[in-house]
Write a structure and sequence with these properties.
By secondary structure, the chain is α/β, with parallel strands linked by helices. It contains twelve helices and nine strands. Helix content is 47%, strand content 15%. The N and C termini lie far apart (77 Å). It holds the Pfam family Lip_A_acyltrans.
């Protein structure tokens, strides 16, 4: 039998693990390219682009659109159904702006980015006194990346940080541009936060996402709905005696820029009672959200984890009528 007559052997398949790794590298590379391209646009154009994408998301049934309406209808029942839908549609346009502007905030010169801040309300609450550190909480409202950059520019800052699958190096480099030290969401990272507070520094935390671990979290009301809520802020405040304030960056309508808000945390956030502390944390987030509700991260599944025996929230058909009927069933029991 000649060599040419031998049956061809199939090329060896690349192991699934290698294929996944290659896929992650390619997707990460594409994400970097998109972010760098968008960062070259003027911020006003970024906002128009983001709003257009958000308007498209709001037009056709999809999970982001449904989940935002479910959250708004649950948390803001005083609004009529028409008002809830209108708020959801505005929110998705703002949601688009948030992601369209991120490349600009990450990659433009720091002076240019901080120059977008047109006003700071309550800035006196960011003062550190008597050698104590300050715990600064930035909910997912408006431009939370800008809030973090501003905080780190005010003095030494440790920022609690969740490593990301994509763009992780870009995120870390950006957040460190004004001097922030990134502390990963690990026991080692928590020690970094404690040490920073003991040195009298700032600590920045995003407080409004659902903890994955059972330990160190409890259910507490968020706009009247039970939300699985972190106790880390409470633990840090009790251990170090550091005050707690909220900081967020509201996107302005009339000019291309932002207004920063600093709001003191409600009493009880350092309570020995976990339920009181978690309730105070969520009350503070509520106050921030109500300042500009259209800019909150409503599509996020904040109530994914439910108390035992409770109905699931993020389920069912994607159209608005079914979502609103589902909220009615949730309220009935």
């Amino acid at each position: 039998m000649t060599k040419s007559s031998l049956p061809k052997q199939p090329a060896p398949k690349r192991p699934a693990k290698d294929r996944r790794a290659l896929g992650l590298v390619l997707k990460d590379g594409l994400a970097h390219l998109v972010v760098h391209l968008i960062s070259r646009l003027p911020l006003s154009m970024n906002h128009r682009l983001g709003a257009a994408v958000g308007a498209l998301v709001a037009r056709w049934p999809n999970r982001q659109r449904r989940n935002a309406l479910l959250n708004i209808a649950l948390c803001l029942p005083h609004l009529s159904e028409r008002e809830q839908i209108r708020l959801r549609d505005r929110n998705l346009r703002e949601f688009g702006k948030t992601y369209a502007e991120i490349g600009y905030l990450w990659l433009r010169p720091v002076e240019q980015v901080l120059g977008l801040i047109k006003e700071v309300r309550g800035g006196e609450w960011l003062r550190r006194e008597n050698g104590k550190g300050l715990i600064v909480l930035s909910p997912h409202i408006g431009a939370w990346e800008l809030a973090g950059l501003y905080l780190a520019a005010q003095g030494p800052t440790a920022i609690f940080y969740k490593p990301q699958r994509y763009l992780d190096d870009l995120i870390r480099d950006s957040r460190a541009r004004t001097g922030g030290e990134l502390a990963p969401i690990t026991p080692k990272g928590i020690r970094v936060l404690i040490q920073a507070l003991e040195r009298g520094e700032f600590v920045g935390i995003l407080p409004d996402q659902e903890p994955k671990a059972d330990k160190g979290a409890v259910f507490a009301p968020f706009f009247g709905e039970p939300a699985f809520t972190m106790l880390l802020v409470n633990r840090l405040a009790k251990r170090t005696g550091a005050p707690v304030v909220f900081l967020f960056a509201e996107r302005l309508r009339d000019v291309c820029g932002f207004r920063l808000h600093c709001i003191p945390a409600p009493e009880g956030i350092a309570s020995d009672d976990d339920a009181i502390a978690a309730r105070a944390l969520n009350e503070g987030i509520e106050r921030c959200v109500l300042t500009c509700p259209e800019q909150y991260l409503w599509p996020y599944k904040r109530f994914r984890r439910r108390p035992e025996g409770s109905l699931k929230i993020y389920t069912g058909p994607l159209d608005d009528a079914h979502a609103l009927r589902h909220v009615g069933r949730l309220r009935e029991g």
